[in-house]
Amino acid sequence: MRLTISVIKADIGSVGGHTKPSARMMAAVEGEVANAIDNGLLIDSFVRHTGDDIAIIMTHTRGEGSSEVHQFAWKTFLAATAVAKTSGLYGAGQDLLVDAPSGNVRGAGPAVAELSFDHSLSGARPAESFMVFAADKCGPGAYNLPLYLAFADPMYCAGLMLPPMIKGFRFHIIDMDNTAGDSVIELDAPADGYHIAALLRDNERFGIDRIVSKTYGEVAVAVSAQRLHAIAGKYTGKDDPVAIVRNQGIFAAPEEIISPFAKAHFVGGDARGSHVMPLMPVPLNTPVTGMYCLPIVSCVGFSIDREGKFSESYTDFFDNLAWDEVRQRAQRKAIEMRSQGWSGAAMLPYSELEYGGFRDTVSGLLKRFRLREERKPQAAE
To answer: Does the annotation mark 11 as catalytic?
Structure first.
């Protein structure tokens, strides 16, 4: 069976500001999902939120970019948007950037990550397990560093030294500033490791699109690498990426994949999408209510049975006391960075500020600049 995992996520309304979706919104999404499973469109699905973003995790056999699956997700988000509007919630329908996308919703606002594989529970994959990362209040390159460390650095992933992974992985990196289409380069780790790092250091322009095993040709990672302002032409919210990561066996183990997130590394995002702040790992269904509106990321793990259904339970990887210390570190880093306010590295440069209002303010001031007349030297007395 050729199985596809699709994750489609959107910010379509939240309670009390950009915090979390309402229970009625979540119920609307879950109801639509249940119908899609009953009707045979989906094999299985799982719905949760991270901050104010609702993610629909799905398995099906329709393939990547399926218009049926994507249109289902779009209509489901519209149903939840209607609930948000009726309730007067903030940002209702915010990520739905077009009136009616034709077919694929990638590029229409929602974050989309998909990957497909032959699912037989045999050969190189006698068991199929995967993780889904969902981030809120941060830019599209938020996963660049942790995924690089997990799939290219044996200091973080000792499994890279074992025969199934010793040949390394191929990184597909996308130029997110190119609005003409998907502009992608393929680079191999470890051979092109420095070249990969040279691109991935710029989280706002370059992002990992997918990672593929060089030994087996199997896709290990798929990321929603796209920028909302490049789609809409104006700020509509931070890009809030999702990632699907297959694990174990021929891929990195869960602990090797999540350990780089203990860095609480700095990313663009936070309030108004305009600051540089640490990415804080949080449990599923965590609202954005802490100081400074920190960028947050959740991670949920599943196993898949022979029919393509999720295991009867799931693992909430960041819902563990071990991550409390990381969350404390993230808060300390955030307090230190935000104490610098608007100055220097604490905020993104004007070229990356997402709210058009910042640029409008500066553009208005630039019109008032005048060339100073050259001063004539004064005669000596």
So the answer is: yes
